[in-house]
Design brief:
mainly alpha
Length: 303
């Protein structure tokens, strides 16, 4: 059964299975909220779906075809050995993809330009299945070379692609708004609660819980934060734009705003490399974790 699933998801039909999982979960979650009478922001969800559809064609090239071409070339020309056993190949693919995902994700939060691309995923002020595929076409640039490590050690392309697709379906599910605490699983897996922490903009939650399936990586690399107070999701400087044509540039606009405060070209370039909360003059702006609190204080009436 697992062999068949990997073979199917690793084939040309894999992308359709992932699309089916995404839209199926989005639809089921919307029905759930209709039946329960809970809050659901339709405009935000439609914006997320629009961002997904707008970027799909371009991201198919930059996010799938080119990285997979690199994977196949590495496998055909540079691999050090060949793993014929499916169980071993699938396990190796899982571990390498997990680590590639973690470090690509962490870089996306800690490098200014990469954050400008990745922050679109965090620009929704809602947490649900629709936000799971909300993204910018140039996001996840480092992941292709990191994934190619699996090709180097001999994981067949179809196995790696199939395992990646299975893991990405988990990545859609762990944006579920309707799942509460899963007990002991919260200590092991990147559950919806653990991932909601990742989407939160409170200072102690920012840049935590990067993992896709196993939260153990965050525990190992010191980036784990348990679910405590209710997370407030969205960017530190929140975006209230439900037009997919303009919302996709929210991160680039915020980066340009920070760069615009610098006079020296050296400082302007540093904004592309330094973490998003960095500023050349030490002032808290835009993506600074305490920006929201500082902004609220400026709005308080004088005594």
């Amino acid at each position: 059964m697992i062999e068949q699933a990997i073979a199917t998801l690793g084939s040309e039909s894999g992308i359709w299975w992932m699309a089916g999982a995404y839209f199926g979960l989005v639809f089921a979650e919307r029905i759930y909220h209709l039946l329960k009478g809970g809050h659901y922001d339709n405009a935000d969800a439609l914006c997320s779906i629009g961002l997904n559809l707008l970027g799909s064609a371009i991201k198919l090239v930059f996010g799938l075809i080119l990285p997979f071409a690199l994977y196949i070339w590495t496998y055909d020309n540079l691999r050090l050995l060949t793993i014929d056993n499916l169980a071993i190949a699938a396990l190796a693919a899982f571990i390498i993809h997990e680590l590639a995902y973690y470090w690509d994700h962490r870089l996306g939060h800690r490098v200014g330009l990469l954050w400008a691309f990745h922050s679109i995923h965090h620009s929704s002020n809602e947490f649900n299945h629709s936000t799971s595929a909300r993204g910018f076409v140039l996001d996840n640039i480092p992941r292709g070379p990191l994934d190619a490590i699996a090709a180097l050690i001999g994981v067949p392309p179809i196995v790696f692609l199939g395992v990646s697709a299975l893991k990405n379906i988990w990545g859609i599910w762990n944006h579920a708004s309707y799942v509460g605490s899963l007990g002991l699983a919260e200590h092991i897996l990147a559950t919806p609660r653990n991932h909601m922490v990742h989407h939160a903009n409170q200072p102690h939650y920012i840049d935590k819980n990067y993992s896709q399936v196993l939260i153990l990586w965050d525990r190992l690399f010191g980036s784990f934060e348990p679910y405590g107070e209710r997370p407030i999701v969205g960017l530190v400087k929140q975006v209230h734009d439900n037009n997919p044509l303009t919302a996709q540039f929210a991160g680039i606009r915020q980066l340009a705003e920070r760069v615009g405060h610098a006079d020296r070209w050296q400082d302007k370039l540093l904004y592309l490399w330094k973490p998003p909360e960095w500023s050349h003059d030490g002032l808290c702006r835009s993506d600074c974790p305490k920006y929201g609190m500082a902004h609220e204080k400026t709005l308080e009436p004088a005594e």
